[in-house]
Amino acid sequence: MNVTSVDGTSIFFEQRGDGPPVILIGGAFNDRTTVVGLAEVLAGDFTTIVYDRRGRGDSGDTSPYAVEREIEDIAALIAQVGGTASVFGHSSGAILALEAGAAGLGIDKLVAYEPPYTVADRTSSADDLVDRVRAAIEAGDRDEAVRLFLVEGADTPAELIDGMKADPVWGWFTALAHTLPYDLTIVGPGGRLPADRLARISTPALVIDGSESPSWFAATARAVTAAIPGARHETLAGQDHGVLQFPETLRGLLTDFLK
């Protein structure tokens, strides 16, 4: 199914289950297929909506990019399912969910899993990273765009990149390389936490980190929780940033909070 955003961009989505609507938002290198597992886990209790963010999968893309356009995409999906919905976001998708909450969309409840702001125990990415990634894409060098994002934006050790290039997943990464500037724009220069904007969120919010993730994710989750009035923080035992590969582990926490 498709919904049309304010700027005319067609956004493709799939709907499952029955119950209160929940929109699931993936982060970098994600399209709707990477959150389908979680959608199916939750579909027994909720109407789950997965979608291709603009520039991905079967959705369109309209220049120039702005975070506000992606917020409008979420607003169009919320309107499609009745005017209000809960949202779950992972990684940069979690930041997008938080930005949607700060913008005052009709969000019933908001869940953010490991939003990658930089607050402690982590070196901030350079403010010009998004420009250099965009330049690599414009030059046709998707490999370099992905390398820059992984090493400087996602803390991947540089010595691992050659091995990753030999893995089939590298083709998935490069196919979505043109959307990496979008995720970097969402995270913002240096990944600095926008406490003033987060303080505008009035919907009930849950911020989650995984116990096996690097310690800075927990520090960031706590900082985000502190910035949002009345927000709740939980650490998911045994999980890390790859939690979408193990969606069943999220069932209890999300069901209890979203119902």
Structure, explained:
- With 259 residues, the chain is α/β, with parallel strands linked by helices.
- It has two domains: 181 residues, Alpha/Beta hydrolase fold, catalytic domain (Rossmann fold), CATH 3.40.50.1820; 57 residues, no CATH class.
- The chain has eleven helices and eight strands.
- The chain has an eight-stranded mixed beta sheet, with helices on both faces.
Low-confidence stretches: none
What do we call the CATH topology of the largest domain? Answer: Rossmann fold
Order of helices and strands: EEEHEHEHEHHHHHHEHEH
**Fraction of helical residues:** 25-40%
Structural shape? globular
Spatial arrangement of strands, main beta sheet = 1-2-4-3-5-6-7-8
What is the CATH first-level class name of the largest domain?
Answer: Alpha Beta
Structural class: alpha/beta
Distance between the termini: 26 Å
CATH superfamily annotation of the largest domain: Alpha/Beta hydrolase fold, catalytic domain
Integer average pLDDT: 97
Q: Work out the number of β strands.
A: 8
